[in-house]
Structures are given as C-alpha cells and as structure tokens.
Amino acid sequence: MIVSMLAIYSTSAATPEHARVLLLNSYHPQYLWTEALTQGVKSELANLIEAENLHIEYMDERRFVSDPTYHEKWRQLLLYKYQQFKPDIIISSDDAAFHFLANEVDELFPNTPIIFGGVNVFKPHIIENKTNFSGILEGMEIKGNVELIYQLQPQVKEIILLADKTELGIRMVEQARSEMPYDLGKQVLVRIWDDFSIAEFKSYASQTSTKTAFLMLAVHKDKNGAYFSFAKELKDFATISKAPIYGMWGAIMIGQGVIGGLMNNPFEHGKALANMAKRVLSGTPIANIPLEANSKFSPTFDYNQLQKFNIDLNRLPLNSEIYFKPESFYQSNKSLVHGTVLTACILIAIIFILFANIQRRRKAETSLLELNDSLEHKIKFRTQELSDKNNQLKAMMEEMKHLANTDSLTDLPNRRSGARRLRKFMTRYLPSQDNLTIAMLDIDYFKSINDKFGHNVGDNILKRTSICLQNTIRPTDFAYRWGGEEFLILFSNTPVKSAFSACTRIQQHLAEIKTPDDKPVTVSIGIAQQQVNDSFEYILKRADESLYYAKGNGRNRIEMLYTEINKHKEQSGYCA
Ligand SMILES: Nc1nc2c(ncn2[C@@H]2O[C@H](COP(=O)(O)OP(=O)(O)OP(=O)(O)O)[C@@H](O)[C@H]2O)c(=O)[nH]1
C-alpha cells in the first residue's frame, strides 16, 4: 500500500508540460456526447501539455455492448500499447470505460491516477480499495425531469422511462426504481420500459397523445438485439411519436427529435474532468481530491419540438437554453439595428435641434418685427410730437418775436424794430446813390388831450393815428411807434422832396381824426436824410432836432434843419 502510494505521488509530481494523458472513452466519436466531452478535455489541456501527449481511445461500447471477447481484445491492445507509452494520468468517460478500468487497472496501469466521469450509475464498492480513483459522478436527473414534464404538460397522465437490458440500462432502471414513486400531486402513472422492440415503440408512440411523455434514460439495443442509435432510431421515434420525448444527455439528444429536458453538457463535463487531472499533474495527490457529486443538469430545449407539441414557452424554467429558435431580425442584425437606431436618434436629435432653432429664429424674427413696428410707431409718434412741439415753439417764437418787435397798444412795429431796420438801411444804402429819409413825428399837445378827455381817449387817438400812418405811407415805407406819442417813419429810397410831400399827406389825413371837442389832431414832423459818413445816432439826432425845431416854431409843421432843409426849401420852395 505504502509502495503504491509512493508511486502515485511520484507520478503525480511529473512536470505537467511533459506529462502523458490517456483519455479512454466508452463510446465511438460518432456518438456526439463522446465527441463533445473529448473536445472539452482537449480545450482544457491545450495550454498545459503537448498535443501529441494526449492519447485518445474509443472503446465503441455501444456497438460491442457487454461483449467479453471484445473486452479481452481491448485489454490486450491497451496492455501492448501503453507499456510503451506509459500514461501519467488517465481520464475515463462514461460507464463502460470506468468499469473496464476498475477491473483492469492493476494489471494495465498499476498505480496510475484515474479521473473518471460520465458514470451514470455509480456503485462506490467498485473502487472501494482503490486510492488512485477520483472523478465526477455524472449521475442522472430522473426525478427533476419527471417534475419538469409535469410542469410543461399539466395534462400528462403517463410518463414512460425508456431503457434496455444492457448493463448500463439495468443500472439506470435500478436507479429509477429506487427513486420511485414520484410525487407529482396528481395521478400520473410513471412506467419503465426496458424490454421493447423498436417496432413496438413505434406502434405505441404513433397512437398516443400529449397525455403521454417519454423520458429517454439509455437505450443501446432493443429486445431483439437491434442496435439503437440516437442519430437514427431516436430521430425516427421522435418523427412518429405523438407524445414528446424528453432526455438528459444534452449534445447527443438535442437536434435528434428530443423536445429537451434537464440536460447535462458533455463539453463542460470534459473540461471539469481535465481540470481535476491538471490538479493531479500539478502535484496534488489524487487521494486528496474527493469525488465530486453529480454534474450539472440544466434546462435545455429544442424550439421546433416545443412548437410541435404546443408547449407554452412561459412554462419553461427561467434559465432555459433554447436551441434552433429562429433569430429575430434584431438578433441576427444587432449591430445593424443598433447602428440604424443610433443614426435615427442622432438624426431625430439634429432635426429637433434644427426645428427648435427655426422656431426660436421665427419667434425672434416676429418679436423683432413687432419691436420694429412698435419702434416705428413710437418714432412716428415722437416725430409728430416733436414736430408739433417745434411748430408750437416756432409759433411761440414768432409770437414772442412779434411781441418783442410790436407795440401792444397800436400794433405798430416798436422802437426796437424801427432802430434795427434803420441800422440795416444805413448799411445797405449808399448816400451817393440812394435816398434814405426818415421823419420823426409827434402829436401836438397830447398831454392836454389826456388831461382833458382821459387816457382812454388818448389811447384811442394813438391807435387811430397808427392806422392812419399805416394806410397813408407806401408799402415800401415803414412806420414805428417810437415812444409815447412819437412815431418814426422810414422812407426807403425817397428823396427829401417826396418825404416832405408824404409828411404833408400824413398831416392832412391825421387832421381827419378829431378830439372829443371836435378839434383835428395835428402833428409836428422833423425830417433828416442820410449823409456821407452818417451814423444811426446822428441821423436820429438831426430828425429829433428838426422836430423840436417844428415844435418851437408853433407846431403842426414839417422841419428839416441844417443844409438839407435849406437845400430842400430852395428846391421845393416849401415853407411850413
Ligand atoms: N393816453 C396816452 N397818453 C400817453 C401815452 N404815451 C404818452 N402819453 C402822454 O403824452 C403826453 C405827452 O406830453 P408832452 O410831452 O408834454 O407833449 P405835448 O403835451 O403833446 O406837448 P407838445 O409835444 O409840446 O405839443 C404825456 O402826458 C404822456 O403821459 C399813451 O400811450 N397813451
């Protein structure tokens, strides 16, 4: 025992990358389960050992089931081969290889660690005294599948478990019987068929309904010894059967007409076995690696069969894996759909932004137009207001100008106005060519009129005198109220002689104005003419002095002092 333990430790301590691994399969690689499990082992060991150091054998036990002659030949073959290529570890798949190794290991592969998997019905006593065995029990999921059938087919009345009389079949049936009865809470009959011919099955299955369900355990041969293949016979069964056929051996059953069930995954199972082998190759003694419980059975279904038997998909367990389900357009064109949706979203976003922009711009334009209108309106209003104010101002200025230049009593231009025009005339007219003549006129004895008849009468005489002056002078001459009862007359371009005539005419017209005691109004007049180098003050002074001269000479006279008067008197022969 100690020697064998030492041998196991020394083997397991081999450098992993140079280790030689033997994978002993119970079946042929045509058997999909075996192929998938082999791939799982390969994929897990690929990075650890060289490919040529993985030796793979297929016992083809489905064809040579329970055949002692065949077994003997196998034993001899393996003995011959692996004496030359001694494996550091053996991985076995399924029941036949496990039982073969349990019987032959001591002679063929003494002390070699063995990792076994895929054993459906495991009896611990088989390896009771063998310390170089460990592995993963594949087991079966009969109870779980029976419950699943009832969940998917609530109308089911009969569940038939299918097996055969081969060694494996017998072990499976024993296992199934040990678990019965299955408590489904309803009256469902669970039966086991392990001794039927292919023809009998077909006849029964073709006449049944979904009140029946089949659960395939393992069938290698029918009762007549006819070989049963999952690829051919199972497919025929499923085509003919009016009741669904369930199974638990994933890769070999899905796609062969089986509706599904709680199924194992041979690829993952192979990987798990190889993983256990790696631990041994890395130095963990196999004795320290305990047997692992059942491998995982998960709900796996064939979509076409679910449709065929009208199984409501909502009844499937949540974690179900469904094969052959036609992919929706979305599933098969995910990136195209995502791209299109993304593009559409971006376009919609751009359109939305543009639309919002247009709206904002339109709003802004409308408010701008409104603002413009309101501004225009305001400007028009303000302009009108301003123009009105301007006109008012102009009128006021005119009025003020008028008031500033007009005598309020007589409405004649006042002294300021007269003085301005006189200054203007004196700069404009040349004494050598033009005759600018002025006359200063004063009402005689006006004080006594006021005193005698009152100021109103005096005012009235002043007004009538003004009107008379305006009416008597030419349009080109100007009359001003110079102050009190004094008036200035500008005779533009008028020689002295004409001025005298005009003044005489004025005196005559004024005489028609009568005082209340019927006396005519008389005026004294002093005349002056612009001279060379004359001035405003000087011409007025001369007119004033002539006026006073007239007053002094008895009033109601027209006088012109200095040379002018004499010259004039000589010219006209005038004597006031
Ligand atoms: N009613 C009235 N009287 C005025 C006005 N302005 C001046 N007077 C008066 O006119 C009078 C002028 O008197 P005087 O300067 O003595 O002259 P006069 O009485 O006309 O005497 P002579 O000029 O020498 O003929 C004064 O009594 C003034 O009060 C006026 O606007 N209205």
Automatic annotation (TrEMBL):
<keyword id="KW-1133">Transmembrane helix</keyword>
<protein>
    <recommendedName>
        <fullName>diguanylate cyclase</fullName>
        <ecNumber>2.7.7.65</ecNumber>
    </recommendedName>
</protein>
<dbReference type="InterPro" id="IPR029787">
    <property type="entry name" value="Nucleotide_cyclase"/>
</dbReference>
<feature type="domain" description="GGDEF">
    <location>
        <begin position="434"/>
        <end position="563"/>
    </location>
</feature>
<dbReference type="InterPro" id="IPR000160">
    <property type="entry name" value="GGDEF_dom"/>
</dbReference>
<dbReference type="InterPro" id="IPR007487">
    <property type="entry name" value="ABC_transpt-TYRBP-like"/>
</dbReference>
<dbReference type="InterPro" id="IPR043128">
    <property type="entry name" value="Rev_trsase/Diguanyl_cyclase"/>
</dbReference>
<keyword id="KW-0812">Transmembrane</keyword>
<dbReference type="Pfam" id="PF04392">
    <property type="entry name" value="ABC_sub_bind"/>
</dbReference>
<feature type="transmembrane region" description="Helical">
    <location>
        <begin position="336"/>
        <end position="358"/>
    </location>
</feature>
<dbReference type="InterPro" id="IPR050469">
    <property type="entry name" value="Diguanylate_Cyclase"/>
</dbReference>
<dbReference type="Pfam" id="PF00990">
    <property type="entry name" value="GGDEF"/>
</dbReference>
<keyword id="KW-0472">Membrane</keyword>
